[in-house]
Amino acid sequence: MSSTPPASDAGSITRVAGIEVGHHTDSRRPTGCTVILAREGAVAGVDVRGAAPGTRETDLLHPSNLVEKVHAIVLAGGSAWGLDAATGAVRWLEEQGIGFDVAVGRLPLVPAAVLFDLLVGDMRIRPDAAAGYAACQAASRADPAEGNVGAGAGAAVGKIFGIGHAMKGGVGTASVTVAGVTVGALVACNALGDVLNPDTAQVLAGARTDDGKGLRDTRRALLRGEPPQPLLAGTNTTLGVVATDARITKVQAHRLAIAAHDGLARSINPVHTMSDGDTVFALGTGCVETHPGMMVLATMAAEATARATARAVLAARSVTTAEGLYLPGMADWRPSRL
């Protein structure tokens, strides 16, 4: 774990000029939503690699479609119900006079994606429009809170051998700066698979052993022939947003979203499964004139995403629900050795 940057060194997505982040965490059960704001608008792209996504307004981000900029991205728990959080973000932005000029008013453009956290606590409690509005109210340029907050409040990782052997997921963020240009990432990690240290491939969090005291190492367990539990499609999902202050085109934003998935692949195994809806958005605020080239930007996007994914579990704390589900978090769990 030593090569994963500590919180003080990792940076955050709000180090990107023009980006703000706000969380809303529901105190009634572990769930919530996270909003990434770009008040002045940001060129946007998206890439979906999981087979079970839950999304809103992603078609408008295709490079061939009309709209160039969006004003926020919403990530939420609550599965498909959580998409309602974007409605609250739209309302808040409209009240601030932010949006696409449609002659008779301003229309905020707010793509969104959700993860499945309904197995953690009372599934009847999920993010709604009021939650999305509250997340916008809380947004700032400060480094965002990590761990059991916002869209990661009810997240869990390592569920391939059953939720009872899983660990706590969460929200993580990181950034990389090269030659005056910054790329930051925010990830809500609710992966089916294990989360790894992206530098060493050491398992940080994921499926636990039968006695619950150690890490099983999902990749090696599957290759040994240990059968996974029957899986319900769409009951997982890692969501991410990468942002840069470089001036990029819509096509380049799409390529950054694709590159960011390389970061997920370095930090989650297995990833992009039939039971995940893994989705990454990319934003370009254009606040910095310098452009280091797409090769460098893509490398930065993958690196920031990988680090943010690791941060999501390193900052997560243990949760025990009223129903008796225990999800240990890396911040306060001491596993036995493999």
Describe this structure in words.
By secondary structure, the chain is α+β, with helices and mostly antiparallel strands. The chain has a single domain (7-332), classed as L-amino peptidase D-ALA esterase/amidase, CATH 3.60.70. The protein contains six helices and 18 strands. Strands 1, 2, 3, 4, 7, 10, 11, 14 and 16 form a nine-stranded mixed β-sheet that branches. Strand 10 (170-178) and strand 11 (181-189) form a beta hairpin. Helix 2 (85-95) crosses helix 3 (129-137) and helix 5 packs across helix 6 (294-314). The two termini are 15 Å apart.
List its salient traits.
single chain, 338 residues, alpha+beta, 9-stranded mixed sheet, 6 helices, globular, disordered N terminus
At the fold tier of CATH, the topology name is L-amino peptidase D-ALA esterase/amidase
What's the gyration radius in Å? 18 Å
Helical amount among residues, as a percent range?
10-25%
Can you identify the CATH class? Alpha Beta
Distance between the termini: 15 Å
Number of domains: 1
Contiguous helical run count: 6
Low-confidence spans: pLDDT under 50, at least 5 residues?
1-5
